Amino acid sequence: xxxxxxxxxxxxxxxxxxxxxxxxxxxxxxxxxxxxxxxxxxxxxxxxxxxxxxxxxxxxxxxxxxxxxxxxxxxxxxxxxxxxxxxxxxxxxxxxxxxxxxxxxxxxxxxxxxxxxxxxxxxxxxxxxxxxxxxxxxxxxxxxxxxxxxx
Length: 151
Hints:
There is one protein chain. The chain is mainly beta. It has a single domain, classed as CATH 2.40.50.140. The chain is 7% helix and 46% strand. It is built from one helix and seven strands. Strands 1-3-4-6-5 form a five-stranded mixed barrel. It is globular. It starts with 6 loop residues before the first strand and ends in a 29-residue tail after the last strand. 19% of the residues are buried.
């Protein structure tokens, strides 16, 4: 059986994306997304939890993200999960990290980005893959209460 992994998150960038070039000339962009979750504990008290998810994007998608995304930008990211393992040079201990390798990237909501309009970018190999998708202008910008969603 073949495996499958897909992760979809929405949140805010915790820092400006970092663009690097690999020794073979590929562009890679690293960033982290803060994902807030509001829930009620067993006593009914409302609590909030934050997860920080590491992400990496490659090629033209990496260049577009590093150019337009800024700390605090609201984003929706989807991609595959990837686990990397290495040995820490200072302690000699084995370390590992799970991150999302970005396949699709969308700006969500109003943030530090000027204009507040949504744009979509994808890592597919088509010539125009980094062009913004056509997004209607009448999408409300207020926050959606996910507890109202019936599923």
